[in-house]
Amino acid sequence: MSMECFVLFGVLTFLLTTNGADALDCLLEESCVLPCRFQPGAEVIIHWIQLADSPAHSYYHGNDQLSHQKLRFSGRTSLFKNQISGGNASLLLSGVKVEDEGRYKCYTSTVDHNKETFIDLNVYAPVRKVELHQDGKRITCSSEGIYPKPEISWSTDPPSNQNLSEKIKVQQIGQLYNINSSLTSVPDVEFKCTVSTGRNKMTATLFKLTFLSGSSTETTMHCTSSKSPPTGLIWRFNHSQIIVSDGSVMEEWRQQVKSVTMSGDLTLKDLSTDHDGIYTCELRNAEGTYVTNTFLRIEQSQGNVSNLNIHKLGDYTHCYCSSCWYAGLL
Ligand SMILES: *[C@@H]1O[C@H](CO)[C@@H](O)[C@H](O)[C@H]1NC(C)=O
Ligand SMILES: *[C@@H]1O[C@H](CO)[C@@H](O)[C@H](O)[C@H]1NC(C)=O
Ligand SMILES: *[C@@H]1O[C@H](CO)[C@@H](O)[C@H](O)[C@H]1NC(C)=O
Ligand SMILES: *[C@@H]1O[C@H](CO)[C@@H](O)[C@H](O)[C@H]1NC(C)=O
Ligand SMILES: *[C@@H]1O[C@H](CO)[C@@H](O)[C@H](O)[C@H]1NC(C)=O
């Protein structure tokens, strides 16, 4: 019984050490530790080799031996010196590059044992930010600095049967990819754009336009509430002018901005009809980007309930009650 167990264990370790290579994901331009352990002993020799045959780092006679090191690893590798005697041959690789991808062999030997460990290193630069911009009827979704090559896809609510994945542009700058895609906006539709690489994805959502009839003394507009706290917030007017960007209020808007809450809601004061227009909240958090457009119309005469308006906004005509204190179409 115990013999059987021993044999089985032996076979398993054999399989793991001959065919097994652990996969390791390393962030581009960051530092990464390639793990390797061995049974401690005297006269330690360590060779780190990127297959096929690019010496990355060697250690013997108690010192780093870098005379055969491939030039592109120069100054970027080190061992944890004070842990070598304890059996730690891990390699610290800094400033990770795309060329660092591939299989590595960690060869260790002491007077008693020698061992080979294999690691497959994959390099990636995740999607960190997806932007959605509207310019007239054109909506563009974009993201930058991604590796490996990203993909982009659109969806709408309600679903659309038109092919939305057209006009995708991918550009490679150095080793990183930039991607963008544009489409034509349609009224009363919510758009979602997702940029993904093998390892992560992020989504930007453009909500349907809402209408708000606001008071000239004070009006609050909302961003979309989402679970994660915002990491970035921009309020824009008429798709161009910036009102608030990451906490700082632009000079031209100091008179009007009363407050911006933690969740992104914007309160304006002392408004006139000059402030009629579209207010865009672009909120970013760990999950993605949320773009909320509010069409604000400032009430001129308060308390006048018989004030029905017809407003033409681009291609759409809206009829609404300007004193009714609620947003929506009639
Ligand atoms: C080796 O030591 C370093 C530094 O303490 C540590 O980060 C790493 O996890 C260790 N590796 C192994 C395989 O023990
Ligand atoms: C949508 O268009 C893209 C680019 O022209 C094409 O590659 C893709 O196959 C199309 N998808 C569908 C479902 O027609
Ligand atoms: C989209 O990508 C193309 C090619 O990389 C670039 O020329 C263009 O300026 C981008 N457009 C936008 C709106 O980002
Ligand atoms: C903002 O946009 C609205 C609607 O298109 C327009 O009526 C208004 O004149 C614009 N305001 C400014 C200051 O550009
Ligand atoms: C209410 O609106 C009507 C039509 O625009 C206008 O004639 C009237 O003077 C307004 N009343 C007040 C109290 O503002």
Automatic annotation (TrEMBL):
SMART domains: IG (SM00409), IGc2 (SM00408), IGv (SM00406). Residues 24-122, 187-292 form the Ig-like domain. One of its GO terms (biological process) is regulation of leukocyte cell-cell adhesion. It is a single-pass type I membrane protein. Pfam families: C2-set_2, ig, V-set. One of its GO terms (cellular component) is plasma membrane. InterPro entries: CD80_C2-set, Ig-like_dom, Ig-like_dom_sf, Ig-like_fold, Ig_sub, Ig_sub2, Ig_V-set, Immunoglobulin_dom. It is found in: Cell membrane. Residues 1-23 form the signal peptide. Keywords: Cell membrane, Disulfide bond, Glycoprotein, Immunoglobulin domain, Membrane, Receptor, Signal, Transmembrane, Transmembrane helix. It comes from the Eukaryota. PANTHER family: BUTYROPHILIN SUBFAMILY 2 MEMBER A2-LIKE-RELATED, T-LYMPHOCYTE ACTIVATION ANTIGEN. This is Ig-like domain-containing protein.
